[in-house]
Design brief:
Structural class: alpha/beta
Bound molecules: pyridoxal-5'-phosphate
Strand content: 5-15%
Order of helices and strands: HHEHEHEHEHEEEEEHHHEEHHHEH
Radius of gyration: 22 Å
Number of strands: 12
Helix content: 25-40%
Oligomer: single chain
Distance between the termini: 27 Å
Length: 392
């Protein structure tokens, strides 16, 4: 924080006041292990000579499957690769996969890399999750799967999507990159749908450095993903299908095992910070939050606000610039929406996405990490209040 820690008064930095944070407050900080706690596993890995495909990966798969209460966990090199393998395991030569445009680009890439067709669906204006009623409108004979994101770590409308997928006879896959530790009606996210895919990259809750986890209760799907992460090879080098090298290394698995030990307390910590953000920002005109159902728990992988420029007095680029002047880093998760990205414009069916197009330019993600500390969160909220007061 700034030299003059304590109560902030007067105008924000952009209007000539002093900066809230002398040293830039970053958007996030990854969980990192204490090096000494890693030494024993690293020594064991190097002594064994098995740097891949061995006991640490197996232990990570066993422990996470037990933690998430799911039959199979397949560790992979990234969530993107995991999603690619799950889409590959659908075994379809073509067809449409329904997914939100308001999510991370990799979600759609995993579909397109399989020569399946991403078809973008609108979001619910309260939760910002994929809207089940628009999924129903988008369904055709060509639809082979729904790929829904548990956005920011809040579970999406799992039951509603499940009902739609079952009655249409299509697969249901969850991009659970944000959701390791999320609760849906009190149950951990992981066993739902046909498969869920988590990310172990540094901005996520469970950290390996780089990595991912596929969870499923489907024995065949799990076996296909195991073969698929290993070129499609089931052991005899007669590849059954065109796979990838998407293995997780033993070193990354050892890091993730340590990250798992403290996961629950870190999720709870973030929930407290989210409460402070809501308390500090809730009564500022023109600021609202994506709704999380009372029976669910978000990991708050991100803490994102929705800004109504007319009421708040600044649009998102203006607020972003004002926060930057005060030393606060922010990010627009998710803007631009995927259907407007160069990679997809003109290559996907144009559908009306009014909620996505209205919400996406109005979201801003605020700093959040495991031990950001209550004072910093309060100070960010205070700064936004002073920026609002200086509007116009
Ligand atoms: C981070 C992220 C991914 C990609 O995860 P990687 O492990 O980096 O491949 C996919 N989907 C969402 C929603 C993400 O946030």
């Amino acid at each position: 924080m700034s030299a003059e820690d304590g109560v902030l008064t007067g105008p924000p930095a952009i209007a000539g006041g002093s900066r809230a944070f002398d040293e830039e407050l970053r958007l996030g900080k990854p969980w990192t292990p204490d090096l000494d706690s890693l030494t024993p596993s690293f020594k064991a890995i190097f002594a064994s000579g098995f740097l891949s495909n061995s006991t640490y990966v197996e232990e990570l798969e066993r422990k996470t499957a037990e933690y998430l209460q799911v039959s199979h966990c397949v560790a992979v090199s990234s969530c993107t690769a995991g999603l690619m393998l799950v889409n590959r395991a659908l075994g379809r030569a073509g067809g449409e996969v329904l997914l939100p445009s308001f999510t991370f680009g990799a979600s759609a890439h995993s579909v397109a890399w399989n020569r399946l067709t991403p078809k973008f669906v609108d979001i619910d204006p309260r939760s910002l999750h994929i809207d089940p009623s628009d999924v129903e409108r988008a369904l055709t004979q060509e639809t082979v799967a729904i790929l829904a994101t548990h956005l920011y770590g809040a579970p999406c409308a799992i039951d509603e999507l499940n009902t739609i997928a079952r009655s249409a006879g299509i697969k249901l896959i969850f991009d659970a990159a944000h959701a390791f530790g999320s609760l849906y009606d009190g149950r951990r996210v992981g066993p739902f749908g046909d498969a869920e895919v988590f990310s172990l990259s540094p901005t996520k809750l469970l950290v390996a450095g780089e990595g991912g986890l596929i969870t499923t209760n489907d024995d065949d799907l799990a076996e296909n993903c195991r073969a698929g992460r290993n070129y499609g090879n089931r052991g005899n080098y007669n590849c059954k299908f065109v796979g990838l090298n998407a293995r997780l290394s033993e070193i990354h698995a050892a890091i993730a095992l340590l990250s798992l030990e403290t996961l629950e307390e870190r999720v709870q910590q973030r929930a407290r910070y989210a409460e402070i953000y809501r308390g500090g920002l809730g009564d500022i005109p023109g600021i609202s939050f994506p709704a999380v159902r009372a029976t669910d728990r978000s990991t708050y992988k991100d803490f994102t606000i929705i800004v109504d420029p007319g009421t708040f007095g600044w649009d998102v680029p203006g607020l972003e610039k004002a926060l930057e002047a005060d030393g606060i880093e922010t990010r627009r998760y998710y803007y631009p929406p995927i259907h407007t990205m160069d990679a997809y414009v003109g290559r996907v069916e144009e559908r009306a996405l009014p909620v996505t197009n209205s919400i996406s330019p109005r979201v801003l993600t605020l700093p959040m990490w495991d031990d950001i500390g209550e004072e910093r969160v309060e100070r960010v909220a205070d700064t936004i209040r002073r920026i609002q007061a200086a509007a116009g």
